[in-house]
Write a structure and sequence with these properties.
Keywords: Signal. Pfam families: TAT_signal (PF10518). It comes from Faecalibacterium prausnitzii. This is Twin-arginine translocation signal domain-containing protein. This protein folds into three domains: 39 residues; 75 residues, no CATH class; 68 residues, no CATH class. The termini are far apart. It is elongated, with a radius of gyration of 33 Å. The protein is α+β, with helices and mostly antiparallel strands. It has one helix and 14 strands; from the N terminus they run H-E-E-E-E-E-E-E-E-E-E-E-E-E-E. A hairpin with a 2-residue loop joins strand 1 and strand 2.
């Protein structure tokens, strides 16, 4: 009986020692993290889950127009530094976004909110609408009528036109510094973008 009691005491002693060491390790880590948080700027704080960061829920919402907003997809969780009270949406992993949606405003910075039931969370607006530019950039062919020695006669300049445009006038084109239109150019006449060559010249 005495031997069994000694064995039991040894086992209990080992368990207590392990628990003590584990507790001491956690305490040391927490103290070190506190020192890191206190001594570093926001940019220098290392990301250590549950030590220097805390989980924040991300709720994705979409604006359907007429003042109606709806929750889309599933909520996600991100790790945010304990020193931060807001999140740059551009830093959110794109894999967390609802399928077929993208950020409505990648430059947005959203405030971290707190709710008794949800805990800390942010609301991020997403959209399934793909922006289509109203204009396009095209190359306009020009010919220099008074080229300098060694200068190519034919070149191109850039111009912005409506997305479905097939013609352009000289009045819509901005020439590089030092150039002007050659004599006889009809400034408001529409010319085919793909084929017409505009005559230009160096300013004397």
């Amino acid at each position: 009986m005495r031997e069994r009691k000694i064995v039991r005491l040894i086992i209990m002693s080992n368990i207590s020692r392990r628990q003590f060491l584990k507790g001491a390790g956690v305490a040391t880590l927490a103290v070190a993290a506190a020192g890191v948080l206190a001594g570093c700027s926001k940019e220098d704080v290392p990301v250590i889950p549950e030590v220097t960061t805390r989980p924040v829920m991300v709720i994705f919402m979409a604006d359907k127009g007429n003042g109606e907003t709806v929750v889309v997809g599933e909520t996600a969780k991100i790790d945010v530094l304990k020193t931060e009270d807001s999140v740059k949406v551009a830093d959110i992993d794109k894999k967390l976004l609802p399928e077929d949606y993208h950020l409505e405003n990648e430059k947005a910075v959203v405030e971290i909110r707190k709710d008794a039931s949800k805990g800390e969370y942010i609301i991020v607006f997403v959209t399934d609408v793909t922006y289509t530019p109203a204009t396009k950039e095209v190359d306009i062919k020009v010919a220099i009528t008074n080229p300098k020695a060694g200068e190519a006669v034919m070149t191109t300049v850039k111009a912005n036109v409506k997305k479905d445009a097939t013609t352009i006038s000289a009045a819509e084109i901005t020439l590089p510094d030092g150039f002007t239109w050659a004599e006889g150019t009809e400034m408001n006449r529409q010319y085919d973008i793909a084929t017409y060559v505009f005559p230009i010249k160096h300013i004397a």
